[in-house]
Amino acid sequence: MGDKKVIFSGVQPSGDLTIGNYLGAIRNWVDLQDEYDCYYCIVDLHAITVPQVAKDLRRRTLEVLAQYMAAGLDPEKVTLFVQSHVSAHAELAWVLNCMTYMGELNRMTQFKEKSRKSEANLNAGLFTYPALMASDILLYQANAVPVGDDQKQHLELARDLANRFNNRYSDTFKIPEPLISKVGARIMDLQDPTSKMSKSSENENGYILIKDDPKTIKRKIKRAVTDSIGEVNYSDDQPGIKNMITIYSKFSGESYEEIVNKYKGEGYGKFKGDLAEVIIEGLRPVRERFEELMSNKDYLENVYNEGAKKAERVARKTLSKVYRKTGFIKRKY
Ligand code: AQP
Question: Kindly report the CA angle at 107 between 321 and 243, in degrees rounded to 5?
């Protein structure tokens, strides 16, 4: 590992992973695994900021790990681990919470959006989520964080908190930079192409899961909303079609222009039929490898145990410095 720059990123096991998570995050992580020292986490502590059913959370945590690996992340090269296995995350989050202003958290758009959706269930964890995310990143002295547009504001807060701590005490944290993928387009909901595709969406026709079978993928694409224009154009006036062209392009490697030209004069039926095939073929190796991995629980267990051990060593080192500088006395035995 040595001089390699460090990267931290994670996905919440708050639902089954969608092609939004795959194309927008995980597939890009795979491209970074040789160049960087990568920590890829399954952020289960974050997931409980909205209520979860324990047995589903348990199942999904393991499935997310298997999907990381099925997508191409190699546990020999990167550190794969479960957030709750490394208690330093929750511990540093507390210290950072005590340095975060209410006003800063109030401005977070994700909090505003999520609180609008679940007014009956507003908990303090959802509000202080960005301090936990800052601790995830800062514990590993990450140089860079691959994030989607939606997470930029949280990363900005992580940078502010790192600077605040460094100024108040002394140099402790690296200041992380965003690493925004050049091809990191946002994948939108198939039923409401003005919102992003989300794994916790209530309408299952709005997303495609990595583990959806071909029949389900065909059905969901068939039902995806389009418009009455009737031409395959890459245009903001046709958000449904535009989103499907993006997905097509990301799976096939063809450019938007090539795709638009290919379907000139064709209706949406042919385009949708082909798109379903492109997705099915793109996901096939991932799904097959995923199923194989899920039938080998011992191996998965070994991967997350080894990952936690490695992450724990690095995280403890940072946390010890933070505790010492904060003024906590060290336990002597
Ligand atoms: N639709 C998307 N298009 C591109 N990238 C996406 N990501 C998520 N949705 C899309 C990226 O996936 C990573 C995982 O994010 P997360 O699990 O921390 O939570 P999220 O961003 O809130 O993802 P979801 O699927 O919308 O989850 P829920 O519904 O639980 O909130 C991030 O890198 C994100 O950018």
Answer: 105
In a domain, 67, yes or no: yes
Report which protein residue has its CA nearest ligand 1's atom 12.
21
Residue 116 pLDDT:
81
CB 20 near ligand 1, within 6 Å: yes
Q: Is residue 194 part of a domain?
A: no
Domain match, 284 and 301 both: no
Domain of residue 175, CATH code: 3.40.50.620
Give the global pTM. 0.94
DSSP state of 24: I
Tell me the pLDDT tens digit for each residue of 92-148: 999 999 999 999 999 999 888 888 877 777 899 999 999 999 999 999 999 999 877
Q: Confirm whether 114 is a catalytic residue.
A: yes
How far apart are the C-alpha atoms of 68 and 277, rounded to whole Å? 23
The residue whose CA is least distant from atom 8 of ligand 1 is 21
For the chain, the average pLDDT equals 94
- For 25, the domain range is 6-185+297-326
Residue closest by Cα to atom 34 of ligand 1: 148
Side-by-side strand order, sheet with 37-42? 79-82, 37-42, 6-11, 144-146, 177-179
**Cα of 187 to ligand 1 centre, how many Å?**
10
Confirm if 333 and 155 have CB atoms less than 8 A apart.
no
Q: What does the pLDDT read at residue 183?
A: 54
Considering the domain architecture, whether residues 180 and 76 belong to the same structural domain is answered as yes
236 and 273 belong to one structural domain: yes
**Is residue 189 a contact partner of residue 195, using CB atoms and an 8 Å limit?**
yes
Q: Residue 182 catalytic?
A: no
Is the CB–ligand 1 distance for residue 200 below 6 Å?
A: yes
Considering the domain architecture, whether residues 278 and 152 belong to the same structural domain is answered as no
199 annotated active-site = yes
Cβ(198) – ligand 1 distance below 6 Å: yes
